[in-house]
Amino acid sequence: TMEHMMDEIMSKFKPTSEEELLRTLQVLLTESLKHAFVAFDKGPSPDQVPVPPQVAQHLRRLLASFFTPGSGRVLPLKQDFQNDFGNIETVSCDGCVRLLRAWHARVAAIVATLPKTQRLEEISRFLVMFSASYPDVDLPGEHFDKRNPQSIVRIDRFLPVVETVEKHSTCFRRFTIRGKNGQNYSYLVHQIPNRHARTEERFFGLFRMMNTLLDKRKESRRRNLNFHVPRVVPLNIHVRLVEDDVSCVSLEDVFVDFCQRNGIEPDAPIVKCYDSRKRSQVGQVVNHQTMQTDRRRIFDEMRHQLVTSDILTRYMKIALPDANAWWVFKRHFASQLAMHALATYALFLNKGPPHVLKFMIKNGNIVPWELTPNIDGTGSLYPVDRIPFRLTPNLVNFVSPAGITGVFSSALVASAQALNDPEFALSDYLGAVVRDELISWHAGQDKRSLLPAPILDTKVRHNVQLVMKRLEPLASQDPDLANNPVDQLIKLATSSTHLCLMSPTWHPWL
After folding, report:
1. pLDDT one-digit tens code per residue, 3-49
2. DSSP three-state, residue 358
């Protein structure tokens, strides 16, 4: 029963060749842009720098894997793709960026013509008849939460419409199950790379453990502080079901909506930043001072000309029905943003571009997405950027300065105090997660050998100490506001001097 249902979902809910090609082009374009902006910082122009090796390698594979007789509408594009990328060794990084942008737009136009909904009966007859044949099957992920056995929801039937949801040039299939309690539950079929498949699940488990600790302390419980953890059910190493909500949007979705209303291309800020950096570098000797001056000037231009600070605020004023809903949402969103900031900073997680910051309009919960820790070549956690967490101008404008110094700061301190309580022994939970993560990291570095137990134990203790050293100062209440660790982190996160040094692909102006 369950095996057949899993096989049907894995085999029948795959992205099409066009959708998979679009996702790959977006990844390669982002990597090429990052490489180009690094070249700007180091001196040589991107038109003098070769294509990154990993990008060139993936482009060679695309011809063999995507342009096949079963690839649908992209097959006629094979010759054009061969002409553009057949001799990728002779193409500069700047030329690769231009070509990838053109191909991304070309394939996106093809994907836009594909149907956004399908009938379930056209995809899987087994799932249509599932409820009549198997009446006592629980919802996916139903046992992740502690609950009374009598309250467990079982599947009544699969609803007849399957949607195609596009998020950051990645297409997912979303199906809906009606439970026997009469409520509908939506799930995304998520194709995920093997190297990230279990990392997020480990941190989701850690967040659930942290929620039990937060619920035991008065200051965090009275503020309703917790991590929102969606249900994630792995079907195999590459496919999983992720609980979804129709009201869930990302910061990138908000910006795309703004661009559509104003006739702006969504990638216009990055393109303008790229062209401005290229023009400013002509005839100049690149040094740290000129580079920082140019980046600050471009950052200020973006904020005043293309990406204003009130985009999120205006979007939420339209999305929320009245002032009461506005106040409730903003207050809860500020506390959720604090929890997200705490996890990002203390656990050395990647801060992520705007499409990673997802939240539910109906209640303000922030949905964790693409969680990966930053691990260096020695197996130690390390901070990649000067920015401790995402607190960009639109988030500050929406939460308001009073919300940042009030709800956000107090939630950050209260949650840090709860998790830092010696009675809760958070380091034991961290040790279990960090151990599994280091074993996975080492397997990716060297598949032929295992990490020796003494070395593994040393690395685990070292990384747990790094996390606790970041957590302990946040839990202290320093009466001297000038040296308050939380205030110092907020100043770093909101400083234009530091934001302008972030990669433009991170959208620091948003």
Report:
1. 888 888 888 888 888 888 899 999 999 999 988 888 887 776 777 78
2. strand
